[in-house]
Amino acid sequence: MIPITIAQNWQESKVCQQMDAGILQDLLPPQQIEEQLDAFGAWESRERKLNMVVMVYWLIALHLYPHLSQRDVYARLLSGLRRYRDDITEQIPVKSAFSYRREQLGSEVIEELFEQLAARPTPADTPGVCWKGLRLFCLDGTRESVPDTPANRIAFEYSTDTLEVRSPFPQARMVLLVECGTHLIVDAHLSSCREAEIQGARRLLERRSWEQTLVLWDIGFHAHRSLFQIRQTQGHVLGRLKKSVLLKPLVTLADGSYMVRIYEKPDHQRGPNMLVRVITYRLDDPRLPGGGEQVYRLVTTLLDPFAYPAKELAVLYHERWHAELVIGETRTVMRLSAHTLRSLTPQGVTQELYALVLAHTLVRRLLLQAAQMQGIAPTTLSFTAAIRLLDDNPPVLCGVSPHRRVQIVANWLEELGQQRLPRQRVRIQARVLKRAYPRYAHKKAEHWKAPPLELNLDFHQIVVIVV
Fold first, then answer.
1. What is the Cα–Cα distance from 347 to 328, expressed in whole angstroms?
2. I need a surface site. Which of 9, 184, 402, 429 has the fewest CB within 10 A?
3. Under DSSP, is residue 216 helix (H, G, I), strand (E, B) or coil?
4. Of 67, 60, 55, nearest to 27 (Cα)?
């Protein structure tokens, strides 16, 4: 009997059965993916070159390598196998195979995997997670441009029906709940861009218990109903107010804030009601936009001015910027926001966006592990350094023994823990238009369906010089 070598054994198996996604597999074990594939009945009927476990890792990797094509992303995941196999190039499926498998997989498995990872609690002793015994969360929303296909136009819509000012592409809206101290996305709601952010926020608020938490939100999320939703489960709110609401104080407190009574149905001033506290402040530095002039107003359910002084809460409110930083991580670093999403169908858009927040969660979990080893706040570590680590590790970890793998990962985490960010500066962003309207005319009906041209047509055949 001729013994089978490792190389021979690997050559006889399918590439999709041997792929090692590196640290991704430690953060999201294949067994966890298989459980969800069983639960949703999402397994493939025939494996061929791709199976569903590999597809999940590939969907995540699309957001780790946003500059690569679909086939190149898959080739990157297989890079470690090139030491053992000579047929990697032949084993990379064509583009249509990925689309076929994505349609088979659907979005439910990805959504459930994200929810499972997002539900894992962060240890309360992690620096920056809690403030005076309250876990800090912030709400914010973002819009993502999706390919301009008939199905996407119906599902996600343009920003408005007015042709002159509407968005150039249909847009999907995501409302995110972010843990301030770790930048972990702990919940997300996806909808059409026509659905207001506050509607998505209400759906997020209904899905959770808010005991011992403090939720920070911007001016667009303020609603009496939302305040009552959070207080019903013993949570608290610190949010920004418009200048025209809650202006009549019941009593002024020693720290300069004042108390107001609000009703769950403010139009009728009846039914369930409660006291809230309003804080008014300015930023004195004249170098800041509106410095010394613009007035900021906050509302909070933390009523004790001695335990929660107004100035401390005004300073704390600026922790809400962590949500903006997370949106920057997902859009600029992981998705290259100048481009639309890849998916041509609403199901594909849903799958792709939940794969995006899942990929972000895995990167942030990696940073959390590195920070815990150093005893520091996870937000002080470099997000892009973690992306580079995930980029480098598959070729190194493929084929090593389990004991050696643990040693290599531990060394990498220690190295990642040294990738510290400089201290964040005080910053404020004026509410001004960032981008002018396009100077080109908008598309008309005749522009949407250009006539198909022959493949062998050359510009020499259609260019005419005008004299």
1. 24
2. 402
3. strand
4. 60
Burial of 66 (0-12, 13-18, 19+ CB in 10 A): middle
Q: Give residue 301's Cα distance to chain centre.
A: 28
The token duo for 350 is 């849903």
3-class DSSP state of 427: coil
Q: Give the residue among 357, 119, 317, 104 at the shortest CA–CA distance from 215.
A: 317
Rounded alpha-carbon distances, angstroms, from residue 221 to 118, 159, 211: 22, 19, 20
Alpha-carbon distance of 180 to 216, in angstroms, equals 9
Other CB atoms within 10 Å distance of the CB of residue 153: 15
pLDDT value for 115: 95
Q: How far is CA 420 from the centre of its chain?
A: 22
Helix 52-61 with 95-105: angle, nearest 10 deg: 110
* Residue type, position 443, single letter: K
- Read off the tokens for 196: 């207001």
Angle formed by the axes of helices 70-77 and 52-61, nearest 10°: 110
Task: Please give the structure tokens belonging to residue 15.
Answer: 């590439």
Residue of 163 and 273 predicted with greater confidence: 273
Determine the Cα angle at 399 with ends 76 and 72, to 5°. 10
Question: What ranges do the domains of the chain cover?
Answer: 6-105, 113-332
Q: How many other C-beta atoms are found inside a 10 Å radius of the C-beta of residue 252?
A: 11
Hunting for tokens 């207001």 — which residue is that? 196
The residue behind tokens 């939100």 is: 217
In CATH, what number does 113-332 get?
3.90.350
Tens digit of pLDDT for each residue in 155-214? 998 888 777 667 788 999 999 999 999 999 999 999 998 998 899 999 999 988 899 999
Give the residue carrying structure tokens 């890849």: 342
Q: Which residue has the tokens 């800041």?
A: 288
Residue 137: pLDDT band with limits 50, 70, 90? very high
Q: What is the DSSP letter of 143?
A: E
